[in-house]
Amino acid sequence: MNKNTKNILLITELLSGRLLHDFANSMNGIMFGLEELEVIDKNDADVQKEALSFLKESSDDLIYKHKVMKQAYSSSADNYSFDQTKSNIENYLLKKSKAYVENRRILCKKSGRFN
């Protein structure tokens, strides 16, 4: 195997690992939400609403990640519009910041802190 082929395989391996790692968290969230819907009491509307909210949040996160990664790592029709690229990145970053704030709020609530 020549050096160029080895380099191409190495780059492919690294890129594949990166994409799988980035998507894994969102996919796990979707799987968790589906599992929760299977085992919860069907009469408990609050738990059902929370599970559906978690599913929506995880699927939105996966979609935003996919759009950004598609533009970053491929030659697609989306890449021809700077405004579309900007919008996808802004949506992704907004989603990440909202998730950070929400996770911080939950952790503070659990720990008894308010900051």
Topology diagram in text:
Layout: H1 3-39, H2 45-73, H3 82-111
Account of the 3D structure:
With 115 residues, this protein is mainly alpha-helical. Helix content is 83%, strand content 0%. It contains three helices and no strands. Helix 1 packs antiparallel against helix 2 (45-73) and helix 2 runs antiparallel to helix 3.
How many strands in all? 0
Q: Any idea what the radius of gyration is?
A: 19 Å
**In terms of structural class, how would the helical and strand content be classed?**
mainly alpha
Looking at how many chains there are and whether they match, the oligomeric state comes to single chain
Give me the number of helical elements: 3
Low-pLDDT segments, ≥5 res: none
* Residue fraction in strands: under 5%
How would you sum up the global shape?
A: extended
Helix content: over 70%
Question: Distance N terminus to C terminus?
Answer: 57 Å
| Major sheet details | none
The average pLDDT value, as a whole number, equals: 78
Task: Note the run of SSEs as H and E.
Answer: HHH
In brief:
This protein is an all-alpha fold and 115 residues long. Helices cover 83% and strands 0% of the residues.
State the main characteristics.
115 residues; extended; mainly alpha
